[in-house]
Amino acid sequence: MVLILKIAKRITGCVLSVILIFVIYLFLGGKSGLAAAAVMIAVMFIVILFLLRSFLAQPKDLRNISRLLRLVLFFLLAASSLTGISLANHAMYKVMPVHVLTPWEKTYLYHEALLYKSSGGKSRLNYMSSLQHLSNGKINFYFEEADRKTAQNMILHMDGVTRIMTAMTGEFETVPVTVIFYRNPLIFQQNVPNHHFDSLKGMYVPRERMIHFFIGTSESENEEGLLKRFAHEYSHHMLVAYLESHGLDNRHLPRWFEEGAAEYAAVKSVRLRPPFRPLNIIPFKKIHSMSQWENANRNASPHNPYKQSYYAIDEVIQRNGGRTIGSLMLKSANGNFYEKFETAIGMKIEQFQVEFLKKEMEEFQINNAN
Q: Which secondary-structure segment (H or E) carries 231?
């Protein structure tokens, strides 16, 4: 009986420790949560080293060994709990401004995400079956009832995006795509592939022919912003579909070129060309690969690759026409993109970067002379 009470006491202590850690994290932000976890795990590591030192200086009897093992197991449980909860907390903050949520609201999001995770292989199917469905034959939306109007507006907006994209590529047969809306950032993160983006709120996954789209509570009223984000992701779908219609995929394209084309279509679909603002330019060849693109788009990065790439695509279209974009996608399929770019534009990418930036800056200075 005494042994059972001791075991129950240990288990209760462990459970209460995990609950305490969880409660603390309801009040912590993403980065502060990671920092807190790092400090606490470091402290626990130091304590374990101190205990080991004390243990080695004591007689190696069964009681001391048992005591040391219990403490080590407790610290391991605490460290794993800290790691898991801090990563989940950080994942939430990477997607939405959680500071506007109360601890109770955060608890609900964690609970909902845990239920989703526990569904196993049927998680996404179960989630989609719980949502409303809207389709026009070319696109399928899955959403909560509160987002029906947004889905309807996106269906209407799709035609304008299609016209902008076909001006770059020419007419081709598109394939249907599915769009899933998420209001829980943790469920959203579970459905997109592994990535290193900060503040990711949407992703087109070619192999799934699916757009994963996060809608935060603070963004529900910003209809133009939602339409622009949708247009960007839908443009990715069209670009991939265009390449597939020619038996190609998008792996040969520089990241800045594809993202710039998608951003160009997105911006143009909601408003006229925005006025230029001075940028901290990064060489295009340094935002060529996915990893380079992710690093340049970190929240702490001084660069703005999306705007830079948008202005580059805009300049190409002004110089050579929209069809140059689709032509470059096809002609560079053998991997010599920058050679084909030089042939099409008439200058190397390094010179183009200097020229288009100089032109934009001159225009900016004229517009802001007074």
A: helix 223-244
Is residue 167 one of the residues assigned to a domain?
no
What single DSSP character describes residue 346?
S
Question: Residue 133: beta bridge partners?
Answer: 142
Distance (Å, whole) CA 112 – CA 165? 38
Percent of the chain with pLDDT over 90: 39
Cβ–Cβ under 8 Å, residues 210 and 178: yes
* Long-range CB contacts (within 8 A, 24+) of 161-164: 161/231, 161/234, 161/235, 161/238, 161/265, 161/266, 161/269, 162/238, 164/235, 164/264, 164/265, 164/268, 164/269
CA separation for the pair 215, 237 (Å, rounded): 19
DSSP state of 57: T
pLDDT at 352 over 80: yes
Q: Please report whether residue 75 resides in a domain.
A: yes
Structural domains in the chain (count): 1
Model confidence band, residue 347 (pLDDT cutoffs 50, 70, 90): very high
Average pLDDT, the chain: 80
Does residue 63 lie within any of the structural domains? yes
The contacts of residue 68 (CB under 8 Å, 6+ apart) are 51, 52, 55
Say if residues 350 and 283 touch (Cβ distance below 8 Å). yes
Question: What residue numbers bound the domain in which 38 lies?
Answer: 2-95
Please tell me the distance from the alpha carbon of residue 153 to that of residue 299, in angstroms, as a whole number.
Answer: 30
350 within domain boundaries:
no
